[in-house]
TrEMBL record:
InterPro entries: AAA+_ATPase, ABC_transporter-like_ATP-bd, ABC_transporter-like_CS, BCAA_Transport_ATP-bd_LivF, P-loop_NTPase. It comes from the Bacteria. Residues 3-233 form the ABC transporter domain. The keyword Ribosomal protein does not apply. PROSITE patterns: ABC_TRANSPORTER_1, ABC_TRANSPORTER_2. Belongs to the ABC transporter superfamily. Keywords: Amino-acid transport, ATP-binding, Nucleotide-binding, Transport. GO terms for biological process: L-amino acid transport. GO terms for molecular function: ATP binding; ATP hydrolysis activity; branched-chain amino acid transmembrane transporter activity. This is Amino acid/amide ABC transporter ATP-binding protein 2, HAAT family (TC 3.A.1.4.-). The keyword Nucleotide-binding applies.
């Protein structure tokens, strides 16, 4: 397993948010974490990356414990994170946004140079001189994904990539994520269960900070009760 989250309990101040979340991601998998607004998806991601370390429980990456380790170390060791709010640098151009995120290449993987990123995301190549702040929501999402790749990750965490995007943009994002799936394992959070399950091998359903269901993408798509009770479909 590349990622093993075991029974994490996470607080914001005194608010008890994650009440024992466990999940795993295999080396060749795409796994989704599904749930409604406020279920705890973003908190799970932030906890894995290191922004909100768990008070109890463990996070292992490539077999090593990383809970409590600072974010920069986790990113440097190959965890690529695309936050829900994207955090593009608005005053830097598309190309500069990618250049500042570049990290050393990783052994055994073809490095994500700026040129390779532009080949993979032709839309970004066309916009390379545009300021991050002047991109549309969909363009910013592409840039946020490309920026995470510039760090040459071994694992990609995508937090609600579809949020606020028009259906045609979601379609092109779908193609992008499918292509990346061949390159590295991905953990994806989504409210849009159909989108996420069409891409994923397996999924977990979270509600009120606990995992209520896990199964293959087929099992989740067929389970009407889970969909009605825990997902907004
Ligand atoms: P969304 O789709 O809205 O992002 P989510 O499943 O990602 O939902 P989280 O953002 O993880 O949910 O939020 C889980 C719970 O934690 C919610 O009840 C939310 O109100 C609460 N919460 C989130 N951020 C904070 C914070 N900084 N301080 C206190 N409570 C917070």
């Amino acid at each position: 397993m590349i990622l093993e989250v075991n029974d994490i309990h996470v607080y914001y101040g005194e608010s008890y948010i994650l009440q024992g979340v466990s999940l795993v991601v295999g080396a060749e998998e795409i796994v989704c974490l599904l749930g409604r607004n406020g279920a705890g998806k973003t908190t799970t991601m932030r906890s894995i990356v290191g922004y909100n370390p768990p008070r109890r429980g463990t996070v292992r990456y490539c077999g090593k414990r990383i809970d409590g380790r600072p974010v920069y170390e986790n990113v440097r060791s190959g965890i690529g994170y695309v936050p829900e709010d994207r955090r593009i640098f608005p005053d830097l151009s598309v190309q500069e946004n990618l250049e500042v995120a570049a990290l050393l290449p990783r052994e055994g993987r073809e490095p994500w140079t700026v040129e390779r990123l532009f080949d993979t995301f032709p839309l970004l190549a066309r916009l390379r001189h545009r300021k991050g702040g002047n991109l549309s929501g969909g363009e910013q999402q592409m840039l946020a994904i490309a920026r995470a790749l510039a760090g040459n990750p071994n694992l990609l965490l995508l937090d609600e990539p579809c949020e606020g995007l028009a259906p045609v943009i979601v379609e092109s994002l779908d193609e992008t994520i499918r292509a990346l799936k061949r390159e590295m394992p991905i953990l994806l959070t989504e409210q849009n269960a159909r989108f996420a399950l069409s891409l994923s091998d397996r999924g977990y359903v979270i509600d009120k900070g606990r995992v209520f269901f896990q199964g293959s993408a087929e099992e989740l798509l067929e389970n009407q009760e889970v969909q009605q009770r825990y997902l907004a479909v």
